[in-house]
Amino acid sequence: MHRINKTILGFMMILLAVSCKDNNTSNPLLSEFNTPFQAPPFDKIKHEHYMPALDSAISMAQHEIDAIVNNPEEPTFENTIEALDRSGKLLANVSNILFNLNEAETDSTLQQIVIEASPKLTDFSNDINLNPDLFSRVKAVWNKKDSLTLTPEQQMLLKKTYNGFVRNGANLSESDKEKFRAISRELSELAVKFNQNVLAETNAYQLHITNEADLAGLPQSLIDAAAYTAKQKGLEGWVITLDYPMYGPFMKYADNRELRKKLYMAYGSRCLKGNEYDNQQIVKRIANLRLEMANLLGYPNYATFVLENRMAETPERVNTFLNQLVEASLPAAQNELREVEEFARQNGFKGKIERWDWSYYSEKLKNAKYSYNEEELKPYFQLEKVIDGVFLLANKLYGLKFMPNSRIPVYHPDVRTYEVYDASGRFMAVLYLDFFPREGKSGGAWMTSFRSQYREGDKDVRPLISIVTNFTKPTDKQPSLLTFYEFTTFLHEFGHALHGMLSDCTYSSLSGTSVYRDFVELPSQFMENFAVEKEYLDQFAVHYQTGEKIPQELVQKIIDSRNFQAGYFSLRQLGFGFLDMAWHSITQPVSEDVAAFESKVLKPLDVLPPVKGTNMSVTFGHIFEGGYAAGYYGYKWAEVLDADAFELFKEKGIFNREVAKSFRDNILSKGGTEHPMTLYMRFRGQEPTVDALLKRSGLKN
Asked: Do the domain assignments include residue 302?
């Protein structure tokens, strides 16, 4: 799973602020950034700078809004709609830095600052959205939209601005506006607390191993990483954490079943223990507040409200889509379970396959069927070579060039920075790469931005794009060698980064990844297709010790095994989609236990027995703090698009510049300036169906 664009919570969707210079040179956040490409001066920013900067920026922003409201001229697209979009530079900059660092490099002090800042930002956003005089001007422009001569991008900006006000309570009565304010304020606070609880619970646990026999089955790379982690913590032996680069391989390879169970329970019971980091009440409160907000705005549930601005459009269409994929996935998953059970029995296992057994026996079965072990691949995916390979792909498709620049300030020594140029030498973006797990970083992988692309008169302001992951760390014995999953994750997040870096829009609120949530995963999932193309892999995937190219037979094993347990993995992701829809399709407040609610949703999809004391919802950051509420189905939705899109590349050549130019011109550069289906059909010439995805997954002949 991947998270993306985790900048600023829901209240930042229509964040507006003034763009101006400030004479306050003592606070680097309020001074003009005297850095390459006006990148954030991370080396100068201290915790004590954030709140004064936010307060000052909010105050200045209010002056800007007042200027729009008090403009004596008749409301026009330029003096109202464009003026709103062109504001927001300073506060957006400060907020982006604060919230991005709270995800990537936080501590208890920064977390407390975010808790203090969130309600202030929510209140400010509400002050704008619920300002009747401001909305009156926006509405006046909206009412004469049919008589205006606007470009498609301007039409989209007008629609998004007007709908943004309406969907944020502008048409409500005064009493309901106050309710809306209170709800949105509490939601912003709860989202922050949810995320901080998950991070705290993840960091709090470690499996300390002192008996070498308990390492049986583990690959040497994981043993070395565990020893290195123990050494860092001042312990003897080995330490396994809940960071996925350790957790995933341990569950897959550890022979000690009791330790697999112990680690599984630790991972699955995070934020479920009834302690200060418990998220059960937070989950219910968020769901119930979202329902209340939707009802205030005239919608029967939150999913209906959200999906009004998505490609899928309605909850009914989402559920039909998910069920269509379940029909193809469930029988396959059931067969896959029987196959694993039979294999385990043949190999001496007695009992019932539990969730902590699944990865272990599945990996052994895959190795038996395809003579394929993921550890075989890792020597061919040294991180440094993978970076070269990902950059090479961007060059072959779009002519991009990446130049390291160590003068650009970073927020942690691990972070690498690059200047990005196109084939003509035009500067396109700054790219930050932050690869390794640490205590101050949230789990998972995501792309985000410190500044989005936009135009200011004749000036094209280029974006500052960041990719944050939790990949396998180097040790004192070997460099960072990525799993195949980590390699595809890099490609995935780089697809998001391309969406940001190649943006060619006028308005920041429409640029880059500012698109419908069920469209935003197309560029990322599209990139994953290259991971199994030998023609591409031969360019960079060489053994880190011998320099040998990745063998054709090994690539073929990847291809042959690509659809291994496709039914199970499809069903697992569909389960997340159904769970998301269930929490956001409620029409009455949830009072029942979180585990009971989740069990009802997932039971029809479970092929493995549920485990008491574990829960997905309480750590489901995508939907409770990451922007995917009523939108998690979008991963599968985008898979349909990416499978269909890549067929054209396969037909014309995977490096075909003409097809790549069309994908760039019609998808990557356009942001949210037009309806996504319009953009997709302009590229592909047809609407997609699920057929290409089902065929690629081996779920349909």
From this structure: no
